[in-house]
């Protein structure tokens, strides 16, 4: 069988979706010598992927996502390769593509949070975008040979919201990216949790765009001061405004010997967050912009706590990635998160500042709880592996044609 994979969003610069595509292809290469694969990439990420098996080929499909070219040009490019099945790893399946395909629906965020806050567009443009999203999504789930979901929560969500029969949806759990250079080297000690009083560097709206995050990173990793870490985007459902409000209360109640570090690619939403009055008033918050994996591991390895205040997730990969570094995790109790993280996280109501504050305090100071969460995380992590994800995805491919 000849299989095409739309990998235009390949790589960590595209966040969790890019990581998913990257890891899926890497592990399909490891387990499948039988089928042929055509990996469609854009020019900007073509060098990020190099096939390691002769049955994997890459092809340039330099078509931006979410636009008219995606609707008209991408189907032509795919058809020219004469694939038997195409895997679209996101909901943006071209309306004019009606050959056999499977699609991964990671979440229904835009259905559940269709607010203007979630977009940088004007009112008319946003209305049109939302209308187009709904049309494309319904086409994708209606025409797909099969649908892949990253969690049972998302599977049920697709069934309830879009009327897709459950037997048309397969759950393929995701897994954290495993940083080779830090495997087994990140056990926290009491000394790393305790405080120094050194001042963290602050990266604000005026300096980030011109500064080099790596230089700030070097300073940060040399400071023995406990910090809570968040890695990800700043979309409204990630609830970072609430986290900042809670952080200010936390400092007022428990002192300023703690720090909060936010890591994520600078864009409209981070710019908006950086201009937040609370952000301006908090002296113990650092924003680093995007960091490559080699530098991100250093931030993880020094963190005392990972905080995840999201209101909605289809899977919730960042907390699992943090657990690999033996970092205790405190998490929102919403959506799929309690089912994915199980007893390896301390949960809080993400809409109550007081609960976030107390979770932060316990996460920093309760050594018995910290040890329990780290121990439970070590038992949890083997449940998720990219080998399992790739094998279940391959089963979907082979059962769809």
TrEMBL record:
Pfam families: Glyco_transf_4, Glycos_transf_1
Record-linked SUPFAM superfamilies: UDP-Glycosyltransferase/glycogen phosphorylase (SSF53756)
Domain Glycosyltransferase subfamily 4-like N-terminal: 15-171
Key words, A-Z: Glycosyltransferase, Transferase
Cited CDD domains: GT4_MtfB-like (cd03809)
UniProt keyword annotation of Transferase present: yes
Boundaries of every Glycosyl transferase family domain copy: 224-379
Biological process annotations from GO: lipopolysaccharide biosynthetic process
Taxonomy, superkingdom: Bacteria
Annotated InterPro entries: Glyco_trans_1 (IPR001296), Glyco_trans_4-like_N (IPR028098)
GO molecular function: glycosyltransferase activity
Region (Disordered): 185-206
PANTHER family: GLYCOSYLTRANSFERASE WBBK-RELATED
Protein name: Mannosyltransferase B-like protein
